[in-house]
Write a structure and sequence with these properties.
Rossmann fold, 156 residues, alpha/beta
Protein backbone atom coordinates (compact mmCIF):
# COMPACT_ATOMS: atom_id res chain seq x y z
CA UNK A 1 0.00 0.00 0.00
CA UNK A 2 1.54 3.31 -1.05
CA UNK A 3 -0.17 6.49 0.02
CA UNK A 4 -0.21 9.75 -1.89
CA UNK A 5 3.10 11.58 -1.47
CA UNK A 6 3.15 13.61 1.67
CA UNK A 7 5.10 14.39 4.79
CA UNK A 8 5.58 12.08 7.74
CA UNK A 9 6.16 14.28 10.78
CA UNK A 10 8.57 12.97 13.40
CA UNK A 11 7.96 13.86 17.05
CA UNK A 12 10.76 16.44 16.85
CA UNK A 13 8.94 18.22 14.01
CA UNK A 14 5.72 18.41 16.02
CA UNK A 15 7.69 19.89 18.91
CA UNK A 16 9.30 22.38 16.51
CA UNK A 17 5.90 23.38 15.13
CA UNK A 18 4.70 24.12 18.66
CA UNK A 19 7.88 25.99 19.62
CA UNK A 20 7.72 28.21 16.55
CA UNK A 21 4.15 29.32 17.20
CA UNK A 22 1.84 27.06 15.29
CA UNK A 23 0.02 28.73 12.43
CA UNK A 24 -2.27 26.44 10.47
CA UNK A 25 -1.95 28.73 7.42
CA UNK A 26 1.80 27.98 7.26
CA UNK A 27 0.94 24.37 6.44
CA UNK A 28 -1.70 25.07 3.81
CA UNK A 29 -0.81 23.78 0.37
CA UNK A 30 2.34 21.96 1.52
CA UNK A 31 0.86 18.49 1.06
CA UNK A 32 -0.71 15.83 3.19
CA UNK A 33 0.66 15.39 6.72
CA UNK A 34 0.98 11.99 8.38
CA UNK A 35 2.04 10.41 11.67
CA UNK A 36 2.07 6.86 13.02
CA UNK A 37 1.11 5.63 16.46
CA UNK A 38 4.78 6.03 17.41
CA UNK A 39 4.68 9.84 17.33
CA UNK A 40 1.30 9.97 19.07
CA UNK A 41 2.62 7.65 21.81
CA UNK A 42 5.79 9.70 22.25
CA UNK A 43 3.78 12.91 22.53
CA UNK A 44 1.42 11.36 25.09
CA UNK A 45 4.46 10.33 27.19
CA UNK A 46 5.51 13.98 27.65
CA UNK A 47 5.54 14.91 31.32
CA UNK A 48 7.68 18.05 31.60
CA UNK A 49 7.47 20.95 31.72
CA UNK A 50 3.97 21.31 33.13
CA UNK A 51 1.48 22.10 30.38
CA UNK A 52 3.72 20.79 27.58
CA UNK A 53 1.64 17.64 27.05
CA UNK A 54 -1.55 19.64 26.57
CA UNK A 55 0.21 22.08 24.23
CA UNK A 56 1.62 19.23 22.12
CA UNK A 57 -1.74 17.50 21.86
CA UNK A 58 -3.27 20.83 20.82
CA UNK A 59 -0.53 21.24 18.19
CA UNK A 60 -1.31 17.78 16.89
CA UNK A 61 -4.97 18.72 16.63
CA UNK A 62 -4.12 21.88 14.67
CA UNK A 63 -1.75 20.02 12.31
CA UNK A 64 -4.44 17.35 11.86
CA UNK A 65 -2.16 14.71 10.34
CA UNK A 66 -3.62 11.47 9.06
CA UNK A 67 -2.54 8.49 11.13
CA UNK A 68 -1.03 5.64 9.09
CA UNK A 69 0.13 2.15 9.96
CA UNK A 70 3.85 1.59 10.39
CA UNK A 71 5.21 -0.42 7.47
CA UNK A 72 6.62 -3.14 9.74
CA UNK A 73 5.72 -4.57 13.13
CA UNK A 74 8.36 -4.70 15.85
CA UNK A 75 8.00 -6.59 19.12
CA UNK A 76 7.60 -4.27 22.15
CA UNK A 77 7.33 -1.17 19.92
CA UNK A 78 4.40 -1.70 17.55
CA UNK A 79 0.78 -1.58 18.56
CA UNK A 80 -1.63 -4.28 17.44
CA UNK A 81 -3.77 -2.94 14.62
CA UNK A 82 -1.46 0.03 14.00
CA UNK A 83 1.33 -1.78 12.16
CA UNK A 84 1.63 -3.98 9.10
CA UNK A 85 3.67 -7.16 9.26
CA UNK A 86 5.81 -5.79 6.44
CA UNK A 87 7.68 -7.48 3.63
CA UNK A 88 11.28 -8.68 3.67
CA UNK A 89 12.58 -5.47 2.06
CA UNK A 90 10.91 -3.27 4.68
CA UNK A 91 12.26 -5.44 7.50
CA UNK A 92 15.74 -5.21 5.98
CA UNK A 93 15.48 -1.41 5.77
CA UNK A 94 14.23 -1.28 9.36
CA UNK A 95 17.18 -3.38 10.58
CA UNK A 96 19.62 -1.17 8.64
CA UNK A 97 18.06 1.94 10.17
CA UNK A 98 18.36 0.61 13.72
CA UNK A 99 21.91 -0.65 13.22
CA UNK A 100 23.12 2.61 11.69
CA UNK A 101 21.36 4.79 14.27
CA UNK A 102 22.87 2.69 17.08
CA UNK A 103 26.33 3.17 15.60
CA UNK A 104 25.90 6.92 15.15
CA UNK A 105 24.28 7.93 18.38
CA UNK A 106 25.39 5.38 20.93
CA UNK A 107 22.24 3.24 20.87
CA UNK A 108 19.72 5.83 22.07
CA UNK A 109 16.67 4.29 23.69
CA UNK A 110 14.30 5.58 20.99
CA UNK A 111 16.24 4.25 17.96
CA UNK A 112 13.78 1.41 17.35
CA UNK A 113 10.92 3.92 17.29
CA UNK A 114 12.86 6.32 15.04
CA UNK A 115 13.58 3.40 12.70
CA UNK A 116 9.86 2.52 12.58
CA UNK A 117 9.08 6.08 11.55
CA UNK A 118 11.92 6.12 9.02
CA UNK A 119 11.07 2.82 7.36
CA UNK A 120 7.43 3.91 7.08
CA UNK A 121 8.47 7.13 5.32
CA UNK A 122 10.65 5.17 2.90
CA UNK A 123 8.09 2.42 2.24
CA UNK A 124 5.27 4.89 1.67
CA UNK A 125 7.28 7.31 -0.47
CA UNK A 126 6.80 10.13 2.03
CA UNK A 127 9.26 12.82 3.01
CA UNK A 128 10.27 12.53 6.65
CA UNK A 129 10.19 15.86 8.49
CA UNK A 130 12.58 15.62 11.43
CA UNK A 131 15.01 17.74 13.38
CA UNK A 132 16.93 14.62 14.39
CA UNK A 133 20.00 14.91 12.15
CA UNK A 134 21.02 11.27 12.55
CA UNK A 135 17.55 9.98 11.72
CA UNK A 136 17.24 12.23 8.66
CA UNK A 137 20.71 11.34 7.38
CA UNK A 138 20.16 7.61 7.72
CA UNK A 139 16.77 7.79 5.97
CA UNK A 140 18.44 9.64 3.06
CA UNK A 141 21.30 7.13 2.94
CA UNK A 142 18.79 4.30 2.59
CA UNK A 143 17.03 5.95 -0.34
CA UNK A 144 14.36 7.99 1.41
CA UNK A 145 13.71 11.70 1.63
CA UNK A 146 14.10 13.70 4.82
CA UNK A 147 14.08 17.41 5.60
CA UNK A 148 14.27 19.51 8.73
CA UNK A 149 11.20 21.32 9.99
CA UNK A 150 12.64 24.64 8.79
CA UNK A 151 13.30 23.22 5.31
CA UNK A 152 9.72 21.93 5.24
CA UNK A 153 8.39 25.41 6.06
CA UNK A 154 10.54 27.17 3.46
CA UNK A 155 10.15 24.51 0.79
CA UNK A 156 13.90 23.87 0.56
Amino acid sequence: MCLAPGYLFDTSAINAALDRGLDADAFAGRGALFITHVQADELRATRKPPGRLEALLNALEILAPEKVLTSVAVWNESKWGEARWGDSRSHSVYESLVRTLNTRNGSKANNARDALIGVTAIAEGMTLVTNDRDQGAVVRELGGRAVSFDAFLTGD
